[in-house]
Specification:
By secondary structure, the protein is an alpha/beta fold. The protein has a single domain, classed as LigB-like (Protocatechuate 4,5-dioxygenase, Chain B, 3-Layer(aba) Sandwich). Helices cover about 30% and strands about 20% of the residues. The protein has 10 helices and 10 strands. It has a 6-stranded mixed β-sheet with strand order 5-2-6-1-10-7, with helices on both faces. A two-stranded parallel sheet has the order 3-4. Strands 8-9 form a two-stranded antiparallel ribbon. A hairpin with a 3-residue loop joins strand 8 and strand 9. Helix 6 packs parallel to helix 10. It starts with a helix and ends with a strand. Pfam families: LigB.
């Protein structure tokens, strides 16, 4: 049977999956229990266990678009200078080659490449370790094509919307505000004014239901150029917003800035 038909023939869920955006912050959150990790765990409370998870992480950028298609994705430790405890973490969730093949046919916006090399980077496993600690839900990652503009990414996300009705949980993992060059280690609990400005502006715009100003975030001015100096941590938010259908409930969690210029704000839609 055609794999796309298999996806389409999955039972329609009585209640569709929410769409999540998670501000993942430091990789150390993977091995800590704190207000942020508890917030992540609460995001999936009250929803049915997913049949699969598709994560769009800030840490997998490619030329073209790819999806992990191996049966057992490896845990990627894509960082350095952290304690050995963090490098020892393994998140041994299975993959789903069949779901990956179905996505290859579902997505029309891009020629989707089935990837057998990447795995799960810390934008995915550091978060899922707290949401699904048993690692018993199949996990796939969708890459970010760094050659494409924000509007293109939003439109690609819209093609994924039907997954919410099929028991697939789609997660964007990044940070609304992410500027590592301006981190304030001396006053970690104080946010720069421009960081607070953009974080609040983005939240208020999400509540309006109109994504276009968020897609054209550069027009927010100088504060945006500081808060979003490169797009890879911001774009996963657009994947979450692209899944929104009608006037769904929006909930903000972990709404706090760290080290002056990292927003931990997370969003649940639906």
């Amino acid at each position: 049977m055609d794999v796309l038909k298999k996806l389409q023939q999955l039972p329609q869920q009585e209640a569709k999956m929410p769409a999540l955006f998670i501000g993942h912050g430091s990789p150390m959150n993977a091995v800590e229990e704190n207000e942020f990790t508890r917030g992540w765990a609460s995001m999936a409370a009250g929803i049915a266990k997913p049949k699969a998870i598709l994560c769009v992480s800030a840490h997998w950028q490619t030329k073209g678009t790819a999806v992990t298609a191996m049966s057992q994705p490896r845990t990627i430790h894509d960082f350095y200078g952290f304690p050995q405890q963090l490098f020892d973490v393994q998140y041994n969730a299975p993959g789903s080659p069949e779901t990956a093949a179905a996505l290859q046919q579902l997505i029309k916006k891009a020629e989707l490449h089935l990837d057998h090399d990447w795995g799960l980077d810390h934008g995915t496993w550091s978060v899922l370790k707290h949401i699904y600690p048993e690692a018993d839900v199949p996990v796939l990652q969708l890459s970010l094509d760094y050659t494409k503009p924000a509007q293109w990414h939003y439109e690609l996300a819209q093609e994924l919307a039907q997954l919410r009705h099929k028991g697939v949980l789609v997660i964007g993992s990044g940070n609304i505000v992410h500027n590592l060059r301006t981190l304030n280690w001396h006053k970690p609990d104080e946010a720069f004014g421009w960081a607070t400005e953009i974080n609040e502006q983005v939240k208020q715009q999400i509540l309006t239901g109109d994504p276009q100003p968020l897609i054209r975030y550069e027009r927010f001015g100088e504060a945006a150029s500081l808060a979003i100096p490169t797009p890879e941590h911001y774009l996963p938010l657009l994947y979450t917003l692209g899944l929104q259908q009608g006037q769904e409930q929006v909930q903000f969690l972990n709404d706090k800035l760290q080290l002056g210029s990292i927003s931990m704000t997370s969003v649940r839609i639906g």
